[in-house]
Amino acid sequence: MAMLRRIQNGFKAFFELGPKPAILYLVYQLGLRCGYLKLRTPADQSRIPNNLSALKPNWFFSFPSNQAMGFISNFERQHLVAEAEQIQNGKATLFSCVPFVLDFKTDDALLHWTEYEKGSSLHGVEDIKLIWEPSRFDWAIKLACAYHITKNDHFVESFWQYFEQFSTFNHLNRGVNWISGQEIALRLINWVITGHLIQSSEKSTQERLNTLTWSIAEHADRISRTMIYARAQNNNHLISEAAGLITAAIFLPDHSDALRWQRIGIRWFNKAIASQITNNGEYTQHSTNYHRMMLMLALWVSRILEMAGIPIQHAQKEKLAAASRWLAAMSDPTSGRVPNLGHNDGTNILPFTNSNFDDYRPVIQASCNAFCGTSVFPDGEWNDLCHWLGIPIQSGKTNLQRVLPNDAVHRITGKETWAEMRAVHFRSRPAHADQLSVDLWHRGYNIAMDAGTYHYNLNPPWENALAGTKVHNTITVNHQDQMSRISR
């Protein structure tokens, strides 16, 4: 019966997802199982040139000067420095509120990443997100921003010690931190941003900068060799990996593969934006958290392409404008929070601001200014992302957050209360069975809410347990889920 059910689910997935993603995923699995991907990504065989200094980085991004940091209040400065000091002392706040020990050492002999991807060597790992999240180095941006404001070299030294520890215990293509092209891409982007902000410090020696530069090149090379998985997923994996390749290409223009990285990155970024965002602005993963992630990556890519003299295409900008309006329409005007639709794994990339994890105003303000040419909220700390990325802020407040895209957001708004009902014609399979679910808000508080995700991979009963119909504010018929649950 179990085998028959798997065959039935396979046919359902083929017809529901379409033949192209299914074929791409099958090709990826064949390459993984037969050893081809292991040959394509050899472990420990770094092609580091004898003269590392010959690979000159392009410090292309102009962050605001120390003298131009007046947009950050004294309170925000104190909060940023406190976060950086916590990281300096060995802990980073991840998943919005949980302090994690930053320790990349391991006593285990690390296998090739394909062994972990096949699942045979992941025993004892409770949830791989607990390994991947600190290894993204999002927290490094906090250290870099604190140095940029204070010029305290201790923050820079902390970054280099963490970077060197990670590099020592995570050799090229060995271990779980080399499984996911998306995780590799996010780490690459964070290293490039951090490098820009700390490269003037005396702690950033030429030898250290050379090592960072080559590590970024290794990351880009690794991404380019397995993009077929991201193409099969056609979700934030593809956007992340495309963004990583574009970043590496602009950062390392003299690298022999830079033009190829740029061509591949731009191609798949454009295809992803065109296919993953509906005309009325909803994102393919049906998740407000992943919607924010997509916009953050798009903001970064649009800014660095602009600096390279390659503006994003008009069609892509229109899709991103629609996505910005959709998220604005979903936001609570008092708190900046949004309904917790779909998967929420705690992702909050490019953490330049001191706003709370669940405050979406920074990305809404930045994306609406960048892609719609208008502000949504009055001036406040949510403008910080615009300042850091150099996005011009349009003067004056609009009521854009109340302009609901046609057929996308079903919202009733009162004086202090509003409600939203989930009613979507799906073009892609949602992760949560939340059709007809209702959110209710009063004075900035979400009083009837979506449960979120908690964990993807814990043991039962917590193995992605909050995705089903019964934990959403909707109806069930005979205790049945709205969808059949199928894992990859």
Question: Nutshell version of this structure?
Answer:
The chain is mostly helical and about 500 residues long. It has 17 helices and six strands. The radius of gyration is 22 Å and the shape is globular.
Q: What is the CATH class name of the domain at 21-42 and 68-276?
A: Mainly Alpha
DSSP strand content? 5-15%
Whole-angstrom Rg: 22 Å
Major beta sheet summary: 4 strands, antiparallel
CATH architecture annotation of the domain at 21-42 and 68-276: Alpha/alpha barrel
Give the CA-based shape.
globular
Which structural class do the helices and strands define? mainly alpha
Strand order of the largest sheet: 3-4-5-6
Count of individual beta strands: 6
Instruction: State the assembly state of the protein chains.
Output: single chain
Instruction: Please name the CATH topology of the domain at 21-42 and 68-276.
Output: Glycosyltransferase
Number of helices: 17
Indicate the percent of residues in helices. Answer: 40-55%
Could you tell me the mean pLDDT? 87
Low-pLDDT residue intervals, each spanning 5 or more residues = none
N-to-C span? 19 Å
CATH H level, superfamily name of the domain at 21-42 and 68-276: Chondroitin AC/alginate lyase
Q: What's the helix-strand series?
A: HHHHEEHHHHHHHHHHHHHEEEE
